[in-house]
Specification:
With about 270 residues, the chain is of the alpha/beta class. The chain has nine helices and twelve strands. Helices cover about 40% and strands about 25% of the residues. It is globular and about 65 Å long.
């Protein structure tokens, strides 16, 4: 197993995605540091496989992170915190010169992109880290670019279901909504399902109620004679974890500041 020497700080522990990513990185030979940014009301320590990670609250960040950066020069961050912290964390990463993978959805995405573009700061920002779904998204984007207006007269209905702990609407759904409306479709409704009873009726297995992503995009013409449907259902978090690791490997190769930042998961697919 090849050891990755670059120090990696996984922020968002003890959250589910941060924990799974940190454990996957440790198993993959990455140098995961024993620190993580967390919420103000979080605990002090998170136990991972063979390592206790010290959790740093926002009020402690200024002093403790200086010590972390001195102890681990060349630090790279993976962010799975909370939507409310996205922009604040990104500003911190840019200010301290920390390359980062932003897996957290939400926040003000326009300001996020403007920030890193202005600083030409190396990072990967994506609403979805599952490479297979991102590849489908890229295909739809190509269709949208080549055939603008092809869905004029069609109505779009989106239903996305995620675990009840997900604080915001699906970033992937918002991206695909933009692509379909860019082809002329009118949004009929976008529904975010977080109630477990409804999710069971949708076909979500009981064991994945606390970790899934079910998406259905329906397009209908005005007469109702044409129905087009795209569906992607993910049980568990494995595709997102593995995609995050691939994004991190990609970013490690791109740590020198260069034109093109921020990178997306589509860039990761092209560069992998």
């Amino acid at each position: 197993m090849a050891v990755i020497k670059d120090p990696i700080m996984v922020n968002g522990l003890p959250g589910n995605m941060a924990t799974l990513v940190a454990e996957e990185l440790k198993r993959g030979g990455f140098n995961v540091v024993p620190y993580s940014l967390t919420a103000e009301d979080g605990s002090n320590v998170c136990e991972l496989e063979g390592m206790d990670s010290m959790l740093i609250r926002p009020s402690e960040r200024r002093g403790l992170m200086e010590r972390v950066l001195q102890e681990y020069p060349g630090l790279i961050a993976v962010d799975y915190t909370h939507p409310d912290a996205v922009n604040r964390n990104a500003e911190f990463y840019v200010d301290k010169g920390i390359p980062f993978v932003m897996g957290t959805t939400g926040g003000d995405r326009e300001k996020l992109v403007e920030l890193v573009k202005a600083a030409n700061h190396p990072c990967v920002i994506a609403p979805n880290m599952a490479k297979q779904i991102v590849a489908i998204q890229a295909a739809i984007e190509m269709v949208a670019n080549h055939f603008p207006g092809v869905l004029e007269g069609y109505s779009l209905r989106i239903v996305e279901s995620h675990q009840s702990a997900k604080a915001n609407a699906s970033g992937t759904a918002r991206v695909l909504k933009g692509l379909f409306t860019g082809m002329g479709a009118a949004v009929d409704e976008m529904i975010s399902v977080r109630a477990k009873g409804i999710q069971i009726n949708m076909g979500v297995p009981h064991k994945y109620l606390d970790g899934h992503g079910f998406h259905t995009y329906s397009l209908d013409n005005e007469s109702g004679s044409v129905h087009i449907e795209l569906k992607h259902n993910v049980c568990g978090r494995e595709p997102y974890v593995k995609g995050t690791v691939d994004a991190l490997r990609f970013l490690i190769r791109k740590t020198s500041k260069e034109e093109g930042a921020p990178f997306s998961m589509i860039d990761v697919l092209h560069g992998w």
